[in-house]
Write a structure and sequence with these properties.
Structural class: alpha/beta
Strand content: 35-45%
Distance between the termini: 46 Å
Order of helices and strands: HHHEEEHHHEEEEEEEEEEEEEEEEEHHH
Largest sheet: 10 strands, mixed
Number of helices: 9
Helix content: 10-25%
Strand order of the largest sheet: 2-1-5-8-10-12-14-16-18-20
Length: about 425
């Protein structure tokens, strides 16, 4: 690590030392995590995983740890009957839905889970590898709490929503963390919504650990709608058991700079995952998405399907990778990356990858990047639509294939309305 990149570590070390007295029995685990972050440091341009995303602006800043301010929390209407509010990394029960969670769900905080015998290695796990390992380690060191959600075996609780809010009128950082476990034979739906405004510049460093048991199904709906002055880095780690299924519905519509690393381990026979999403990089927004699926057992299946739209000086990066490991025969891996550039100054860099080390598999991938079809625009104009209406209709149709997979009606409606509002502003601003 060079001196320029080492300098930012000092500010985070100061935050760590200030928080150390509150760590209790977790102090040793948190200290080890922080040293891992310090060892890796901030990525440089030579780091392949950050080739298209420059973090020098983030590295140049020093953020104090945020003290949650409930008076600054402004939330949209809930998408589910039961909602949890996490403010600057801390669960605030008084701000969420009052009463018991849906039957089949158990909610615990870090200290309660530890007293119940949960190992800290599971609650504050630092995943190895990938571009965001360093930030996952920083999260394990500085997260003020861990929200642990357990779905009981054989149950199908009502969907729940987790709103993760960043607050305050001054610059600051927060490190929210959630652990979701769906036990054998259960079915669960969880909405994870990251929200914030432009009152101050913020660094949000989030981690979600997901475990899907045998014959279980977990749908995770993720909406990134933070303000344009936010740096948002998030790592999601999912492990799927035998005949289990993990489904991700992702909508990235916020943050000035956003990075998502989503890693899925299909660890047992017939485990499956579907990772679908969309991102809109408009203005000067920069969105970077990395998907990684490991096929580790016989008969595993994966689908990656993302749609990207960029406009203005917006830039997006998409890297989808699937590895079929030795012995993972009869596995299926499909990847699709489709991208749309609405203006000449926009850019999307896409790279689908397949690595296959088994010989009885079905795998394919593809990527496209282009502009709206002039013939289709002409056809819609000939039917009476204005230029803006025609361009908006085609863009909505382009993203519609992914939105239609969002099988939680209220979530899909919120995504669709937010996307439509942004597209209207974009197209109105074009000459």
């Amino acid at each position: 690590m060079n001196a320029v990149l080492a300098e930012p570590i000092l500010g985070y070390r100061e935050a760590f030392e200030a928080a150390r007295p509150s760590f209790g029995p977790a102090e040793a685990a948190r200290a080890a995590a922080f040293e891992r972050f310090a060892e890796l440091g901030f990525p440089s341009a030579r780091d392949e995983a950050w080739k298209y995303t420059n973090l020098r602006r983030l590295a140049a800043r020093r953020y104090p740890a945020r003290n949650p301010d409930s008076t600054a929390v402004v939330l949209d209407d809930a998408l589910t009957p039961f909602r949890l509010i996490v403010v600057d990394g801390l669960l605030r029960p008084e701000l969420g839905t009052q009463g018991s969670p849906p039957a089949g769900l158990t909610l615990r905080a870090l200290e309660v889970a530890r007293r119940d015998g949960e190992p800290l290695s599971a609650l504050l796990r630092v995943p190895a590898g990938g571009g965001t390992e360093r930030f996952a380690a920083l999260n394990a060191a500085l997260c003020p709490d861990v929200l642990v959600i357990d779905v009981a075996p054989g149950t199908s609780p009502e969907p729940i929503e987790i709103d993760v809010a960043a607050t305050g009128s001054e610059a600051g950082m927060s490190h929210p963390r959630v652990l979701i476990r769906a036990a054998r034979g259960s079915t669960a739906r969880v909405i994870l919504r990251h929200v914030g405004d432009d009152a101050a510049e913020r660094f949000v460093n989030a981690v979600a650990d997901v475990e899907v048991g045998a014959d279980a199904v977990l749908h995770l709906y993720r909406l990134l709608s933070q303000g344009d002055r936010s740096f948002h880095i998030e790592r999601i780690e999912a492990t799927v058991g035998q005949r289990g299924t993990f489904v991700m519905h992702d909508a990235q519509l916020g943050a000035g700079l956003g990075r998502l690393d989503l890693n899925v381990r299909l660890a047992a026979p017939e485990a499956a995952t579907e990772l679908t999403g969309l991102f809109l990089a408009d203005g000067s927004r920069h969105l970077d998405t990395h998907l990684h699926v490991d096929h580790l057992a016989v008969g595993t299946r994966s689908l990656q399907d993302y749609r990207g739209v960029a406009a203005g000086r917006g830039r997006a990066v998409f890297n989808g990778k699937a590895i079929v490991h030795p012995g993972a025969q009869k596995s299926q891996a499909r990847q699709t990356s489709r991208n749309l550039l609405l203006t000449p100054g926009a850019e999307i860099d896409t790279k689908p990858e397949l690595e296959i080390y088994a010989d009885d598999v079905q795998c394919n991938h593809g990527a496209t990047t282009g502009q709206l079809d002039p013939a289709a625009l002409f056809y819609l104009r000939s039917r009476g639509l204005s230029e803006q209406e025609a361009r908006s209709a085609l863009t909505r149709a382009f993203t519609g294939a992914v939105v239609s997979r969002m099988d939680h009606a209220t979530f899909a409606e919120v995504v669709r309305d937010a996307l439509d509002a942004r597209l209207v502003r974009l197209l109105e601003a074009q000459p």
